[in-house]
Amino acid sequence: MKVLVIGGGPAGSTAATAMAQAGLDVQLIESAHFPRYHVGESLTPSCRVVLDVIGVSKILDDYGFVKKNGGVIHWDDDQWTFDWHMQSGVQSWQVDRSEFDTLLLEHARQNGVSVTTGVTGRSVQFADGRPVAVECFRDDGESSTVDDFDFLIDATGRNGLLSARHFGNREPLSNLRNVGVWGYWTGARLLPETPTGGINIISSPEGWYWVIPMAGGRMSIGYVTTKDAFARDRREHPSSDELYRHLVAVSPTVAGLTAGAEFLGGTRVETDYSYIADQFCGPGYAIVGDAACFLDPLLSTGVHLALYSALTAAACVASMDRGEVSETEALRFFEFAYRRAYMRLFALVSIMYERYLGKDGFFLTSDRLIGDEQSGKAEEGVSSRSFAEIIGGLSDLREAAHSSTRVITDQLRVEAVRAQMRSVRAPDSVGPDFTPVRGNPLSDAESADYRLVTSPQLGLERVREARP
């Protein structure tokens, strides 16, 4: 089978590498020339698990990125620490994305992927419901057509070649319309209780801050707030740099962490509007990473969702190629697994923004979201274990690999999640109560007919006979 991947970010590179390692003929086109700047520097431990599968973790360990064990959250009046390395024995990284993304793309090339940069996918042509050609243009202005493929992976990020531009079915989530502003420092500090290399997340009355340790003694410090609050504050300051310095100064905690530190300038601003497409796949194609959905950066889940969807898509295509599953079965599994992962994280992020629950409420909600209401109970009170597992992306990988797609289909648990989601809908939101999973096969038990396996080869493994 010949596969065309459009987009060379983490999702595209990972999917391409995994499929090439499975013996498929993979071509990847990317509009940018790497290295190129990108935000999203704090990786979850699930990223290491996925990158172990494609054999690139050792390269990242040796490169010199900061190794991340966990983090600290100061949220309103609550404070708690999570340490994935202590809990699960897994470390991740704090990365410069320009370097991280370049390493992944080069790893794809070294594993047999035909990589071409400076080529942008402009439109997709369909015949009988399947993509058959992609119209492209090059940096030099020349147009071209790529039509030698059997399956298409759309990894075009927020540009969303299929979801946003072709189908027009990507819906914004009205309760997460935020803006991020950030910059870099030297000489800044982390909260003293931070696990080695960990992230700090610090709330404010109208948003929250991140503090991320980077290689070379730098610190990435950012602030996320609503678009209305940002617009109001921006009018009161002559430049983005002035606004950013003001926002750092008004937080006693963040001001303390930057006392005596040097701001390196060059403030960056980006809208972080969350969205989700009505469908993540169809005959002959799958949409991975930000091209399908994007979630507010509160829990640093962007690269997790990218790599998780990429590995899942690659497993589906590899099993299709070997004749182990039909395309319909494989795509049903992909849609279910990726949408469920996004839905669960969306529920947790939304509830945290509502601020009506304390940390024990977050932890109990996390137990329900992974169907583990009992394990969160500890003698000394409610445990953060489920919360840490969800934000680390580990629950998604565990369920996909252990045929646990059945867990979330239990009607009581589905209704519990629905109740949580109804409570966090923004007043001006429209549509069904459970907008983020419109069209989602949440109760489609057929999705549990398979599980994702990585050994002896990447693919899907049947765990029960399909029903008629």
Automatic annotation (TrEMBL):
This is Dehydrogenase (Flavoprotein). Transmembrane segments: none annotated. It comes from the Bacteria. GO terms for molecular function: monooxygenase activity. Belongs to the flavin-dependent halogenase family. Bacterial tryptophan halogenase subfamily. Keywords: Monooxygenase, Oxidoreductase. It comes from Micromonospora matsumotoense. PANTHER family: FAD-BINDING DOMAIN-CONTAINING PROTEIN, FAD-BINDING PROTEIN. InterPro entries: FAD/NAD-bd_sf, Flavin-dep_Halogenase_NPB, Flavin_halogenase. Residues 424-448 are annotated as: Disordered. It holds the Pfam family Trp_halogenase. The lineage of its organism: Bacteria, Bacillati, Actinomycetota, Actinomycetes, Micromonosporales.
